[in-house]
Amino acid sequence: MVDPVSSGASSAEFRHWWNNERFRGVLYQFLLMAMVAGIGWFLVANTLTNLNARHIATGFGFLDREAGFGISEHLVPYLPSDSYFRAFEVGLLNTLEVAVIGIVLTTLLGLVMGIARLSHNWLVARLASAYVEAMRNVPVLLLLLFCYSLITVSLPLSRNAFNLFDCIFLSNRGLRVPAMIWDDSAVMVVSTLALAVAASFLVGVWARRRQEKTGRYFPVLWSSLGLIAGLPLIAFLATGAHLSFDVPHMAGFNFAGGSTVSPEFAALLLGLVVYTGAFIAEIVRSGILAVSYGQTEAALALGLSRMQVLRLVVLPQSLRVIIPPLTSQYLNLVKNSPLAVAIGFPDLVSVANTAINQTGQAVEGVSIIMGVYLAISLILSFLMNWYNKRVALRGGR
Asked: Which residues touch 118 (CB under 8 Å, ≥6 apart)?
């Protein structure tokens, strides 16, 4: 027989815990995690069962096997006899190359167009507005196809290529330029260049702190350029390095030698930069308008030119508004880069598709793609959030 006293005490204790908001929150989160884990286990188990029923191999062991296919563009040495892992590495480096160069160029384009939209010159402002409105309303895939068609159709064949100084050739096969050939002393020059970049960063930090304490300005830009250009040159001369060039030349129906900027790479980079730059232009324009015009009037009253007002007063304050949405546009540029498969550029997705078609291991291939893009996005978000905290206003305690 149930004791009514103990039953009533248990009910009261349960109501006591249930009325606790913290307890309910922990319980709901635990139930949600259990439900997600259950669904994940069901999907994984069902996928493995179906793969085994169809006698499809699972796991990432295929990465050690010979790839057996060529990749037209690679930043590191690659042969068809290399492994699938090496092929994925080449595709990843191609993706990172597009992402890094694209972010730099689209930032510059967006900054210029955003400022141009606020120009007092009627023609400049209208042209910038037309660019922004046109690019924001065109699908990015269509823009990539247009850029690729424009490059391949408007440029001449290799035998009729535009010739500059008998060493630079531009045709529908791409841009051919001389390639530098270094000897063993190149390691010292590259190491000195990395040291110069680090020294330039430290100079910038020192100059900012010095200006905050004394108000005295230090020419960081020219000092950094001097370090980056001067130190490697000194190392080059001191080590007696020998530098020669591999000049491109016509061989058959195409050029041989030198370095090539392919039409696929140029079209992909041009399309992504022009498309994303339109969105960044609007972000820059809104960030500048968010700064009170009284700041501009005060700076002009102190005798600063309009360019100095923009560079020293308006833009530093507008960064607090610009950085958060700018991060999203950087991520969009990276996530739009897989559209390279439409124009034949061998990025990570293109290489993974070839590997999937040869091995049949679609789950592993897609997992690699998702993991890589997730890692790139998280790293980029972390860096941008770190920079956003540096430029954010800090209230007093």
From this structure: 125, 285, 288, 289
C-alpha pair distances (Å), 277 with each of 43, 194, 217, 270, 280 = 40, 29, 32, 10, 5
Question: What pairing do the DSSP bridges indicate for beta strands 168-171 and 174-177?
Answer: antiparallel
Burial category of 204 from C-beta neighbours within 10 Å (exposed 0-12, middle 13-18, buried 19 and up): middle
Cα 22 from Cα 33, distance rounded (Å): 17
Distance (Å) of CA 295 to CA 117, 306, 374: 20, 12, 40
Please give the Cα distance from 357 to 372 (Å, whole number).
Answer: 20
Amino acid at site 350: S
CA distance 83 to 64: 5
Q: Which amino acid is at 3?
A: D
* Residue 240 tokens, joined: 């007696």
- Span 250-284, pLDDT tens digits: 676 677 666 777 888 888 998 999 999 999 999 99
Positive or negative: CA dihedral 385, 388, 393, 397: positive
154: which 2 tokens?
Answer: 């408007």
pTM of the model: 0.78
Which 3-state string (H, E, C) describes 95-146?
HHHHHHHHHHHHHHHHHHHHHHCCCCCHHHHHHHHHHHHHHHCCCHHHHHHH
The 10s digit of each residue's pLDDT in 165-200 is: 767 777 777 777 776 776 666 677 777 888 888 888
Distance CA 76, CA 93 (A): 8
CA distance 306 to 310: 6
Backbone dihedral angles phi then psi of residue 345, each to the nearest 5 degrees: -85, 130
